[in-house]
Q: What sequence folds into this?
């Protein structure tokens, strides 16, 4: 009885407030979720999980030791991927992060890349997370975890310094802006583990690099990188 009532309630709400694709804004069918089938096909996937020494790995090469680096999409200004990131980061659509985490997780699960033991979302400064109400990378991490069956660790690394926006900074300014802003707690927690460090988007890689260097204080740790998009 309650199950049937819930179904009818959902259908009624769907008629009044139809779900829309967070990439293009078109109404979704009942079989679609978060993004429409057309966008699912059209959004620019990187296929980096199939390409060793891909462009993202070459971009990070030599800056810190890592196993692999992948991203689900190429970032395009004013495109569907930017819309998805905007909905996730600024409009509270946390389901976008979880959905895209699942999507990338499915790619990684059948790839030849080594699977992680632990997934670490890149942390926000506590005041920023309190203001926003959530860390968007944590939902991406949870989506990945649901497929890869790796635990999510939100406690071992902390962002201890609030930094200025990276948007208008060049590469060297970005590196200086985030240097020494992360701190590792409980080093033993991540010893001998393969950690997948995740964030929403990679631009210069300065923030990822700073967080990875903090993680590398744990003995015998291996690090891989995954993001929703790469600029």
A:
């Amino acid at each position: 009885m309650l199950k049937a009532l819930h179904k009818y309630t959902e259908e009624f709400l769907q008629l009044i407030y139809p779900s829309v694709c967070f990439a293009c804004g078109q109404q979704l069918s009942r079989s679609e979720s978060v993004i429409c089938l057309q966008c699912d096909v059209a959004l620019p996937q990187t296929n980096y999980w199939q390409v060793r020494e891909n462009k993202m790995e070459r971009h990070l090469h030599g800056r810190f030791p890592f196993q692999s680096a992948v991203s689900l999409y190429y970032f395009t200004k004013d495109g569907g991927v930017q819309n998805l990131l905007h909905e996730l980061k600024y409009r509270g659509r946390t389901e976008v992060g979880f959905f895209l985490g699942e999507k990338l997780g499915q790619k990684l699960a059948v790839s030849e890349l080594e699977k992680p033991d632990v997934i670490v979302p890149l942390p926000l400064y506590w005041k920023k997370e309190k203001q926003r109400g959530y860390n968007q990378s944590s939902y991406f991490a949870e989506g990945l975890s649901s497929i890869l069956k790796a635990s999510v660790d939100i406690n071992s690394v902390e962002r201890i310094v609030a930094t200025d926006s990276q948007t208008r900074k060049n590469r060297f300014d970005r590196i200086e802006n985030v240097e020494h802003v992360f701190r590792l707690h409980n080093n033993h927690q991540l010893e001998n583990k393969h950690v997948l460090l995740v964030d929403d988007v990679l631009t210069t890689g300065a923030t990822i690099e700073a967080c990875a260097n903090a993680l590398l204080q744990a003995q015998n740790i291996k690090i891989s990188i995954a993001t929703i998009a790469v600029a």
Q: What stands out?
A: Residues 5-16 have pLDDT under 50 and may be disordered.
